Amino acid sequence: MRNHQIIENILSQYNIDNIDFDVYVIADAQVQTIKESDNRICHADESEFFSRTEFAEIASALFNVFGFVRVFYSEISFIEYILRNHIDPNGCIVYNLARDGKMPGKKSLIPSFCDLYHIKYTGSDAFVISLLRNKPDFSDILSVHNINVPISVVFNPKQENLSELNTALEGHEILIKNVCESASIGLTRECKMLFSSDAYPKLRQVATSVNPKQVLVQEFIDGMECEVLVLQYHKDYYAMTPVVITFPKDRTFMDTQISNGYQYGFQLLQTPVASSICATAEHAASILNIKDYARFDFRVRDNIPYLFDIAGTPYTIHHSSVAYLFNEYGLQYEDIYKTIVSCMFSNY
């Protein structure tokens, strides 16, 4: 079955489903989330939150599709509302875009609460969504199943013993990144370097600027970067056409500046390696027990795909690989949200 036909089948099912429920959207937004929150909360980096424009795109689509939509700009306000009003779990679903906090398990709060109260929600469960934040852990799991991942070492900038780094990465180009944040957060041009003993001072300096406690030192895969949307429908996994990320001239990876400024474009990957990437993404989704949907990020070297990041709740704003993909399939922007909710219902 061709990729776009899978989505068309899902949308056909959506059109006959009984859409008679309230939709609760949990989405952390710049300014709004902090303004409404308890001042004791340790918030995520603001670049993790939706801007006003970004959330307007998503909210408009959700209102157009579902009608009865209530928006919560923080996880706590949603939980308080459910508890205070004794909400019937059969009369609502949660469209989960929550991402506040700084610890590895920050995305697990809403899934675990919803599971406790038998509320249906989009996206993976608390365990899986937390695992997807931890790059070295999911990479270790996938490598055991013969999925290619970059060499990665967790590094404390204050540690003296660098033997593990030497053994694993001597002579490799590397990227220094956060262990449990979105791939581009904290990245600058300086985060890419050739690893050697002569580079120790610079390595420590850059690592400390990214995160003074712990960073991931990861092999840089020099080659094309692409993103793959994988849908889970009736428990089966379907990878969509990979979308290549095109960078500005003389730039080779997604850093904070490029990401925040939307300084990148998209194009469909239509070369033979696409089938290998799709098969790898579906295999990884199955191993990790992804629910409903996720985005798998690859870099390709010598026609070999390396899986380096996974987004459990990927951005679906207009400037995203997911929105670009649906447009290339001849579908409407609102179809993204119909597809994800239909997948959710099929998996309960």
UniProtKB/TrEMBL annotation:
PANTHER family: D-ALANINE--D-ALANINE LIGASE (PTHR23132), D-ALANINE--D-ALANINE LIGASE B (PTHR23132:SF23). Keywords: ATP-binding, Ligase, Nucleotide-binding. It is an enzyme of class 6 (ligase). The gene is ddl_1. Belongs to the D-alanine--D-alanine ligase family. PROSITE patterns: ATP_GRASP (PS50975). The lineage of its organism: Bacteria, Bacillati, Bacillota, Clostridia, Eubacteriales. Pfam families: Dala_Dala_lig_C. Residues 139-342 form the ATP-grasp domain. This is D-alanine--D-alanine ligase. Its EC number is 6.3.2.4. One of its GO terms (molecular function) is ATP binding.
